[in-house]
Design a protein that fits this description.
This protein is mainly alpha-helical. The chain has one domain. The chain is built from two helices and no strands. The termini are far apart.
Length: 130
């Protein structure tokens, strides 16, 4: 037996189709807008990324210059102290070596230079006496 469709049943079926059709059309509209605006959006994002990278690199350069200047100021007293300590240590080693060489009977550089001066002076006196 055939059922008779009523207006209410037809409206319900069309209402469901209208909602589905609207959702489908909304999806197509979203795809269309994405195609139209996508290129411009990507271009804008690339431009913004390039600008941001340039700003970040500039900030890094400025920060590194400032950090280097602060580090030099902070290290200067330490470096001066190390140089002073190195000089003191070197002088102490030289004195210790001089004492050991003297105890062994080995003349120092100053002793050899003094003897060289004396020999040169005596040689002049001998030449002058001839």
């Amino acid at each position: 037996m055939a059922t008779k469709r009523t207006k209410t049943q037809t409206k319900k079926a069309q209402g469901g189709n209208d909602a589905t059709r609207s959702a489908w059309l909304a999806g197509l509209g979203a795809v269309s807008i994405a195609q139209k605006r996508g290129g411009a959006l990507i271009g804008g994002l690339i431009s913004e990324g390039t600008d941001f990278q340039a700003r970040a690199q500039k900030l890094v350069r400025e920060t590194s210059v400032d950090a280097l200047a602060h580090a030099k100021v902070a290290i200067a007293p330490v470096r001066a102290g190390l140089k002073n300590n190195a000089k003191k240590f070197g002088a102490a080693v030289q004195r210790g070596v001089a004492v050991v060489l003297t105890q062994l009977g080995i003349p120092s550089k100053a002793d050899v230079e003094e003897l060289t001066r004396r020999v040169t002076a005596l040689s002049r006196q001998l030449r002058a006496a001839k």
